């Protein structure tokens, strides 16, 4: 908006109209402006349909990006796409798949999506990618080994067309944990994230607030907030401060921490996501859920209701794995929630700005 100074009769309307005119992702990315300014411009100019799409990270079926996949991405204008073992056969096939996603975004005037995988959990295939060293063995080998593996796998991911690794396990009580030592877990997470960022791949920390084995669906964490802050909570606090410039995500899922919120799982808990993670620990990046198809089933509610509630609790993006009917249902539910005010436009814009700031930082 143009700025009115005193009673000056400047003509701000032309600036206002230009400032709000629809501008494509590539045009904004090419602007001589900071990532924050680009994110602000995006929020001002994006349609509501585009904004709602940014909240969704979807899975796709198959090993080729065919016309039905293209139509799904075009129709829902999604903010991210996650591929897994079932989508990958060879380097050439994966490169073609991810190129198809980028080309569709470019030719359809979409905001470029995150293209993600959980690198730590991918099956080893000699014709596709390097093996990921066993987490506890890697921890024992030291930070130089962590740095080397992170650099090599980030380069590999970027070569395959990915820009987001949805899997840096920083909890200390999981089967997949690197270590049970809180400070060492933070240093490992920081090392991985900084080496990935140096090679233009984002990361996501799993799972806030920790304190238990998050690989067990729907488990309950019997710990106080104070004890968590002496444990995995301290890992996240250190990582938030140490890697703010690398714009990592933080992931949440459907475990419960009754001492903080007796009625909701973490992914639906405003006291945990907004009050603790954001307001107390100062995390201003993107919060992403784990697969909400699983989360909704554990919580005993519809996937549509779950999606709306997690956004209002403070999450920015939801993961939906592969079921087109669920993708439509969640998109429709989010659209209706914004239309009827259940999700305010201000709340929508908060999430979209965080997502776009991340995307425009180094334009990954």
UniProtKB/TrEMBL annotation:
InterPro entries: GH, Glyco_hydro_3_N, Glyco_hydro_3_N_sf, NagZ_Beta-hexosaminidase
Top-level EC class: hydrolase
Pfam families reported for this sequence: Glyco_hydro_3
Key words of the record: Glycosidase, Hydrolase
Any one biological process term the GO annotation gives: carbohydrate metabolic process
Superkingdom per UniProt: Bacteria
Catalytic activity, EC: 3.2.1.52
Chain intervals for the UniProt region annotation (Disordered): 1-20
SUPFAM superfamilies assigned: (Trans)glycosidases
The reaction(s) this protein catalyses: Hydrolysis of terminal non-reducing N-acetyl-D-hexosamine residues in N-acetyl-beta-D-hexosaminides
Location of the Glycoside hydrolase family 3 N-terminal domain: 49-356
GO molecular function ontology, one term from the record: beta-N-acetylhexosaminidase activity
Family: Belongs to the glycosyl hydrolase 3 family.
Protein name: beta-N-acetylhexosaminidase
Organism the protein comes from: Veillonella atypica ACS-134-V-Col7a
Organism lineage string: Bacteria, Bacillati, Bacillota, Negativicutes, Veillonellales
